[in-house]
Design a protein that fits this description.
alpha/beta, Rossmann fold, 7-stranded mixed sheet, 7 strands
Amino acid sequence: MTAPGPRARTVVDSVGESATRTAAAALAATLVAADVVLLHGDLGAGKTVFVKGLAEGLGLDSDAITSPTFTLVHQYTGGRLPLVHLDLYRIERIELDDVGFDAALAESGVVVVEWAERLARPIAGAICVLIRDRGGDEREIVVER
């Protein structure tokens, strides 16, 4: 067995929510069914804003996107691909299988996980997104795939 090759890395400087959403929509255009996007960033960095941009890029209603902090999982359908949105902020460590989302929907759509560092184990092949708050409305978005 050979080791996986180096991951492609893209860095985007974002000023304002609109630019963050645009960067996410560009990523969404490249996503296919069963892709997993793991979001990392401090509280208030813009992870949910990024998910709204993913939704826009998938043809979903971004106004319907809210952080599922208390419910853990929200599912959205009606676009190019369904979106399963998890927020693990209130969880210490968890197996993705234990969250209770619809695995069949996830296989036919895109799964995005906020606070992905709280997953008990890495997800092979996942796209990792780190959002760094640079102060004010400035963010650095690092995408590794």
